[in-house]
Amino acid sequence: MTVYLCLIIWILIVWGTTRGGRIFVVSGSDKYHIRTNLFLAAVFFSSFLLMAARGESVGTDTAVYLTHLSEIAQLKWETFFSGGWDGQFCTSEKGFMVFEKILSYFTEKGQFLLVVCAAIYTGCMYRFLKHFSNHILTATVSFLCVGSYMLAMNVMRQCVAVGFCCIAWIHLQNKQHKKAALWILLACTFHRSSIIFFVTMLLKKIPVNRTLFAAAAAAAAVFSAWGSRIVYWVISFVPVYAARYGRGRWEISTANGIKILWFIIALLIIVLAFTTDWKNRENHIIFEIMLCSMAYLAINIVGQSFDGFDRLAIFFQPFLILLFEEGGKCFERKTSRVYYMGVTVCMALLFLRLSSTAQYQYTPFW
User: DSSP letters of 16-43?
Assistant: First the structure.
């Protein structure tokens, strides 16, 4: 846990030396300026280094990924898409396999795959927070805790897909729907579960009012209670998933203290529902954040009775960062400062608690 504690301390040091994140670096020509928040860039670069340098024992799937490049290097392009891989199997998602095949031309060392995936994931999340976040200390610490960072050291391929989906959401908010769809499709070639993110394009079309919010909340509650039955029925049409997920084939994590986080998320959603001015069309983005956070809650709860299903919640985790930030807008200025400070401290402590579990005990690759 020491290395994770050092990361938190480093974040606080950078926050202080950049005068609360107010120092920016501007580069580029007179026509095209690139304005970079020095604090945000330093935090994400540090997070990237930590993820890229992890050894095979950090995350239960890391050791498997370390063997991929050497295996993929042996495959021939002429049989790459036909499935004739001489009995070798890496993943059924062709986009990720093509990505690995290209990397194998540079080196067959598995650590290179971890480095590149870490760069893509943290780069995408950096753009996501840079685009939407205003309270960057709270946002960055929340990213480490509830923003899928820790999971990215385990389910790496899926988290790269999450990064692509976050880029898609940026395009979606800029009304670039075709670009958003293309990014989600790219994510699907890395992890087919990314298809669930197409729902965010539908949420963009839903008009905002408290009646529809109440209907969405009721639907989330019903799904939380009986969702496992629905999921079992759906995967009965997909034999591969029916054979792999559910009925004790995967370990189900115990809820325990996470229930407190669920309660806080639900409370924030309710407070925002009654304090946000829904007549202002610019607040539609808050409505989308609330719905995505509800989706995260419902999927997590169903995952307590259907093992493996909770991994879908990872696509909605980045919205928790934005939800906690929006929560501070419900208070007056002085009270909101206390709120953001409290969230930052709680997220830092929860991050350290999560990182103390056996699968995240840190050892570098050397």
Answer: HHTTTTT-EEEEE-SSSEEEEEHHHHHH
What are the φ/ψ torsions at residue 358 (nearest 5 degrees)? -60, -40
How do strand 24-28 and strand 33-37 relate by DSSP bridges? Answer: antiparallel
Q: How far is CA 33 from CA 16, 25, 26, in A?
A: 26, 10, 6
In this structure, what DSSP letter does residue 54 have? B
CA distance 139 to 263: 20
Q: Please identify which residue in the block is written with the tokens 């928790």.
A: 320
Of the candidates 244, 234, 252, 149, the one whose C-alpha atom is nearest the C-alpha of residue 196 is: 234
Helices vs strands, H then E, count in the chain: 17, 2
Predicted model pTM: 0.92
Helix (H, G, I), strand (E, B) or coil at 66: coil
3-state SS, residue 88: coil
Chain-centre distance for alpha carbon 239: 27
Asked if 201 and 292 touch (Cβ cutoff 8 Å), the reply is no
Query: d(Cα 247, Cα 321) in Å, to the nearest integer?
Result: 32
Contact 151, 159 (CB under 8 A): yes
Tell me the one-letter amino acid at 258.
Answer: I
Position 87 scores a pLDDT of 46
Q: For residue 330, what pLDDT is reported?
A: 85
Tokens representing residue 134 in the block: 């205003």
Average pLDDT over residues 265-276: 92
Residue 60 neighbours by CB under 8 Å, 6+ apart: 154, 359
Distance, in Å, from the CA atom of 106 to the CA atom of 271, rounded to the nearest integer, reads 52
Instruction: Measure the CA–CA gap between 160 and 357, rounded to whole angstroms.
Output: 23
State the Cα–Cα distance between residues 72 and 94, nearest whole angstrom: 12
Q: Where are the beta strands (DSSP E) in the chain?
A: 24-28, 33-37
Give the model's pLDDT for residue 269: 94
Phi, psi of 54 (to 5 degrees): -70, 150
Cα 301 to Cα 55: distance, rounded to the nearest angstrom: 32
- Cα distance between residue 6 and residue 160, in whole Å: 25
